[in-house]
Write a structure and sequence with these properties.
The chain is built from eleven helices and no strands. The protein is mainly alpha-helical and 263 residues long. Helix 3 runs antiparallel to helix 9 and helix 7 packs antiparallel against helix 8. It is globular. It is found in: Cell membrane.
Length: 263
């Protein structure tokens, strides 16, 4: 589980699809499914990582949101705080819909390979073509809603939540650093919702997961996620999205070659 926790932490915030990697790694190592308890622990670790890394931004946005209600504050940070909340709504609605129809029907290698390739190429095209120079506090609620719909599409396995959110943000005019930050900010409510959902399922179907191993998974996922955020932001401006696009295409082809469509 050490390897899976590190893989989850790294791929959760890079635009390369964590679901694809969590299929490939157990396949090559011959491991069974890690179980719901470990999923919850790893999500908790990645949530703590992004909260710690952007703690100052989160405090500032929280104050802006509160002051917009209590003191009538109106500025770019207020628009950004409300915009991030608005951008979360499509993913929650789509997530509930997928929960009703059964997301597992989409969690097959063919779907993950296809979305990895198609949306990877789309990310590369938008990153290359869009003249993006704006900051997160310089766009309006319509742009945040569009980013939210892009994030909702990422609930299809293989699309990559980070990748689709960056794609939407770049298409709405944000520069690379700003688009990545918005993707990381939006990970907070989405991951919180995922943890709440997994907690309910775990209570309903208790398992014999080892608490010590779960704690280790959370710590390792958190450390690797923190490192991934830090180095991704540092390298983004110089290398852009192309290395990740090439990687996604190769990954999708590998999934097709190994598993076919249904696996």
């Amino acid at each position: 589980m050490v390897v899976l926790a590190i893989v989850q932490g790294i791929t959760e915030f890079l635009p390369i699809s964590s679901s694809a990697h969590l299929i490939l790694v157990p396949h090559f190592l011959g491991w069974p499914d890690q179980g719901l308890g470990f999923d919850l622990a790893m999500h908790l670790g990645t949530l703590v990582a992004v909260l710690v890394y952007f703690r100052h931004d989160m405090v500032r946005l929280w104050h802006a949101w509160v002051e917009s209600i209590t003191a009538g504050r109106r500025d770019g940070e207020v628009v950004m705080a409300w915009g991030l909340l608005l951008a979360t709504v499509p993913a929650i609605i789509f997530g509930l819909f997928l929960g009703l129809i059964g997301e597992s029907m989409l969690r097959v290698p063919g779907v993950i390979a296809t979305t990895s390739i198609v949306f990877g190429l789309a990310l590369g095209w938008v990153d290359w073509r869009a003249p993006c120079t704006r900051e997160p506090d310089q766009i309006g609620w319509r742009a945040y809603l569009a980013i939210g719909f892009a994030q909702a599409i990422a609930l299809i396995p293989g699309a990559s939540r980070s990748g689709m959110t960056i794609l939407g943000a770049r298409a709405c005019g944000l520069n690379r650093q700003a688009a990545a930050r918005v993707a990381f900010y939006l990970a907070i409510p989405i991951t919180t919702a995922a943890i709440a959902f997994e907690t309910v399922l775990l209570i309903q179907t208790p398992t014999a997961d080892a608490w010590g191993a779960m704690a280790m998974a959370a710590v390792l996922a958190g450390i690797s996620a923190f490192a991934a955020i830090h180095y991704f932001l540092r390298m983004l401006q110089s290398v852009g999205m192309m290395p990740f696009v090439v990687y996604r295409v190769i990954l999708g082809i590998a999934l097709f070659a190994i598993f076919g469509w249904n696996g």
